[in-house]
Every structure is written in structure tokens, then in C-alpha cells.
Amino acid sequence: MKIILTHEVSGLGAAGDVVDVKDGYARNYLVPRGFAIRWTKGGEKDVAQIRRARKIHEIATIEQANEIKAKLEGVKVRLAVRSGDAGRLFGSVTPADIASAIKAAGGPDVDKRRVELGSPIKTLGGHQVSVRLHPEVAANLGVEVVAA
């Protein structure tokens, strides 16, 4: 099935790209979550608009991405969350929580969709998080989850 991506999807493409995927992947995952729309001739007009919006929010060069990476890796991120007696959290830490914690710690403004978690964060302690700044540049960030 031919689709137009409306958001960046790891391993598939960036917003505005027209890609071919399996029917079930598009129908059951990408389209319902708003990551893509079905390709039509009328949808080609949307591609130009999506690409314009992407250019505004995108980090333009690798040099700029490396500068932001240096700033990010210099920031110490502490996130206070509610937890139980055994150190397990009530819920989990989301990419949006991490993005707001980076901003609160004095780091650069990061879009929550660029924060990639290897697995859900459900315990207290130190965790490694990757922030995809550019297709070729990713910043590794240490996040300290503490009890509130």
C-alpha cells in the first residue's frame, strides 16, 4: 500500500515521504495512530505542505545537530516521579516527560517524538535515552529517575 508519512517513523522515513508498506502495517498501525495517510492523487498536494512544515521544525545541518548534541549531553536530567516502596513507578516515564525534564534542566527544546526509549522506564535509577536530532546524529542522554 502506498502511503504518505505525516510524522517521522524510525526505519521507514520522514514526514512528507511517500513509501510502500504492507497493507496490514498501514491499515492497523500507521494510519490509526496518525503517522500516515493513504496516498491519493489529491494527497500529493498535502506532501508539499507537510515538507514545508518539516523544514521549519527540522534541524537543517549536521553541524547544527552536533551543537545541540553537545548541549544535550552536558545537561544532567533528573525526573521526580511517584513510586512504590520497591522502587517501581506508578505507570512509566514517557518521552514527553523526558522532553519537559530536559527543558526544565536548562537544555535545548526537544520534540517528544525525537526521544527514543529502548524499553519503557518503570523503575527508579539511571537510564540511558537516545534523542534522534538528525538522521545521522543521535545524542545519548543519562536520565536519573528519583522518587518524588
TrEMBL record:
KW RNA-binding (keyword) present: yes
Xref: Gene3D superfamilies: Ribosomal protein L9, C-terminal domain, Ribosomal protein L9, N-terminal domain
Record InterPro entries: Ribosomal_bL9, Ribosomal_bL9/RNase_H1_N, Ribosomal_bL9_bac/chp, Ribosomal_bL9_C, Ribosomal_bL9_C_sf, Ribosomal_bL9_N, Ribosomal_bL9_N_sf
Key words of the record: Ribonucleoprotein, Ribosomal protein, RNA-binding, rRNA-binding
GO-annotated biological processes: translation
UniProt domain Ribosomal protein L9: residue ranges: 13-40
Pfam families from the UniProt entry: Ribosomal_L9_C, Ribosomal_L9_N
A Gene Ontology molecular function term of the record: rRNA binding
GO cellular component terms, A-Z: ribonucleoprotein complex; ribosome
UniProt record similarity statement: Belongs to the bacterial ribosomal protein bL9 family.
PANTHER family cross-referenced by the UniProt entry: 50S RIBOSOMAL PROTEIN L9
NCBIfam families linked: L9
The protein's role, per its UniProt record: Binds to the 23S rRNA.
Identification of the protein by name: Large ribosomal subunit protein bL9
Source taxonomy: Bacteria, Bacillati, Actinomycetota, Actinomycetes, Kitasatosporales
